[in-house]
Design brief:
The chain is α+β, with helices and mostly antiparallel strands. It has one domain: outer membrane lipoprotein receptor (LolB), chain A (Clam), CATH 2.50.20. It is built from 7 helices and 14 strands. A hairpin with a 2-residue loop joins strand 3 and strand 4. Helix 3 crosses helix 4 and helix 4 packs antiparallel against helix 7. It is globular.
Length: 341
């Protein structure tokens, strides 16, 4: 039987995947943790882009059906000429494709200005196609049960398939020092999803090194606005789009592009959403929400939710910095026995 202990830090809020095919690209977005969780403090960070590169392509295989008669040396010259011509043509075609991609990137702002919800769906699809895993620094500041809790900073490792999250808390550790969740991996007799947790207190850790906790238990829900299975870029897209479409269907949605912003020293596009929030999060999660989309990666790297349209009472801020895309994590990297959890 597993003992239950308070686990305030196990529930984390969403803000959520650009997934590259394995080995295709690794990129890093670096930044310092946020000071007070506000948009202003997030914008004051000074990280820089370290790497965003793709390997050179070498997929040319030559024209199909080409045959060379080895008994006639002249044919070799003719074949070489055909190959060179085909390579040049392919090079031109690739240049044209690159030019079209560049134009598309230049048109991102026009797209988001014209159709912010459509742009978010486009970015979500891009995220699902291009990102398999990432690591980052996640900073959150939340109001829970009417009380603004201390800011927490977490080092996170994430794998999309199977959905896996490994969080190590580095600021305001509280009851949980580290949490590890893999979907459907640890389920109790009643079918409840569970996560491994390392207690925050040093004395407690002497007695209990780790313990399984239900991720949707009352303690977890009383400690945070979102649970660990709602973490990540993908979940941020999913929740934002879900509530936006719900409000749109009811004729209650205000959604608009409001210009440029900055998270961790990186330029962002800012989207503002207004919902008829009445305090019951079963209907809508907030009144005003400001979403920051990284201009290069098109990932939602900052999310600021308020209970009022004027943006005076913060419900939660969720910020991603130091993002490294597709470092190559595998399921074994989330096995508690293999990573000495």
């Amino acid at each position: 039987m597993h003992r239950a202990i308070p686990l305030a830090s196990l529930c984390l809020a969403v803000v959520s995947s650009m997934q590259c095919q394995p080995g295709s690209r690794t990129s890093t977005m670096s930044g310092a943790p946020v000071g007070d969780g506000s948009e202003q403090s997030a914008a004051a960070q000074t990280p820089e882009l370290i790497a965003m590169a793709a390997p050179a392509s070498s997929d040319f295989e030559g024209p199909s059906g080409l045959e060379v008669d080895s008994s006639n040396p002249g044919n070799h010259d003719d074949a070489h000429a055909v190959l060179v011509s085909s390579e040049r043509r392919l090079s031109v075609e690739r240049s044209q494709v690159n030019a079209r991609d560049a134009i598309a990137e230049d048109q991102h702002e026009a797209f988001i200005r014209r159709d912010p919800l459509g742009f978010l769906k486009f970015s979500w699809d891009k995220c699902n196609k291009e990102i398999t895993d990432y690591r980052c620094t996640f900073t959150k500041l939340e109001r829970v049960k009417g009380e603004l809790r201390p800011e927490q900073i977490t080092d996170v490792r994430f794998l999309r398939e199977p959905f896996s999250v490994d969080m190590t808390f580095t600021k305001n550790v509280a009851e949980c020092k580290r949490a590890l969740y893999v979907v459907d991996k640890w389920v109790d007799d009643e079918g409840n999803q569970q996560a491994w947790a390392k207690p925050g207190g040093a004395i407690v850790r002497l007695l209990i090194s780790k313990i399984l906790q239900p991720i949707h238990g009352s303690r977890a829900q009383n400690a945070s606005r979102r649970t660990i299975d709602q973490f990540g870029f993908g979940k941020t897209f999913e929740l934002f789009i879900y509530y936006s479409e719900k409000a749109k269907a009811n004729g209650e949605l205000t959604l608009r592009y409001v210009g440029h912003g900055e998270i961790g020293g990186r330029p962002t596009y800012k989207i503002e959403r207004i919902l008829p929030y009445d305090g019951d999060e079963a209907n809508y999660p907030d009144n005003l929400l400001i979403l920051h989309m990284d201009q290069e990666t098109l990932l939602p790297v900052g999310c600021f939710a308020y209970s009022d349209e004027a943006g005076k009472e913060l419900l939660g801020s969720y910020i991603y910095t130091d993002v490294v895309l597709n470092p190559g994590y595998e399921p074994k990297d989330f096995d508690p026995d293999l990573i000495n959890f």
